[in-house]
Structure formats: C-alpha cells, structure tokens
Design brief:
The protein is mainly alpha-helical and about 160 residues long. It is about 55% helix and about 5% strand. It has a single domain (about 5-40, about 55-160), classed as Leucine-rich Repeat Variant (Alpha Horseshoe). It contains 8 helices and 2 strands, in the order H-H-E-E-H-H-H-H-H-H. The protein has a two-stranded antiparallel ribbon with strand order 1-2. Pfam families: Cnd3.
Length: about 160
C-alpha cells in the first residue's frame, strides 16, 4: 500500500506503520533499503536433529521508506518522515540507518517536510535514539541557515530545549 497509485492510500499506509508496536529488526532494516537484505547465509539450520528452512527475507518491505521520502507529494513525504521517527524507538540500528534518510530530507523543497524532519529528529533525541554522526553535522548545521525563516526559528526553538 505504500506504493499504491492513490496518494491517500500511501498516506494511510505510513500512518498505520507509525502505530506498530513490535516489528522485527530485519523487516525494519529492509524497509530502509531497496536491495533485498539476506537474513541467512542460505543454509538450513537444525534444532534437535530436525532441519529448519532458511530464514525468509522480506522483499515486500524492501525500500518502503526510500520510496516514501522520494514521493512526488509532500504530504506522503511528511508522513513517511514522521513514521521513520516513530519506528526508531524500536531499534537503535534502525534509528541510525533512518538518520541517513532524515538528513536527506533536510534539503526537501517543501517547508512542511523540513519542519516535520526537525520534529522527528527532536522526538528521536527525546526518546534517546538519536546519535548524530560527524557525517551528518554539516547538514544539521546547514539548516540553521535555512532560507525560510519559519524553519530557522523552529531549529532554534528545538535547540534551546
């Protein structure tokens, strides 16, 4: 549904994803990457002498957020951004990889998307799942000089908290 032709369906899909309480780490990580991530080396494992099938990958989750943050409609990008932050509470590894997508969203053409990105980063910091890396600092500091005064003021308010 995150790739549906109807904008409203895509928005609702991301809104629904934000409400998830438990999701496997494999599915979360797969949702950030368009490439299928293998969860097993391909060999079958055994438990008490019984062979088990190899773990399944999650191709249906592949790139959901990569598509969401690149959507042509800013409303979908905004909700995808919000959902990235909501799911970041579930996994630190996911939060670190989601940060790459969020930093790219700081350059979005739409003010609403940039403001939601700031709110998402603030929420992640509040929940203790934001660990800013040096490679992201130039992007974060660049938003302090944003051409839009609303965005600049929002950044300063968030920093002062």
């Amino acid at each position: 549904m995150a790739r549906d032709m109807c904008t409203e369906v895509r928005i609702e899909a991301f809104n629904s994803l934000a409400k998830m309480q438990r999701v496997s780490g494999g599915v979360l990580l797969q949702s950030l990457s368009k490439k299928i991530i293998k969860t097993d080396t391909g060999s079958a494992s055994s438990v008490k002498g019984k062979k088990l099938p190899p773990k399944l990958s999650f191709p249906c989750a592949a790139g959901i957020f990569a598509h969401g943050v690149e959507d042509e409609f800013y409303q979908v990008r905004t909700v995808a951004c919000k959902t990235l932050g909501a799911l970041a509470k579930l996994s630190n590894q996911y939060a670190q990889k989601a940060l790459d997508l969020l930093m790219d969203m700081m350059n979005d053409d739409t003010e609403a998307v940039r403001l939601q990105t700031l709110q998402t980063l603030f929420d992640m910091a509040t929940y203790g799942c934001l660990s800013m890396q040096e490679k992201h600092m130039h992007m974060f500091l660049g938003i302090l000089m944003d051409a839009n005064i609303v965005v600049r003021n929002a950044v300063w308010r968030k920093i002062r908290r």
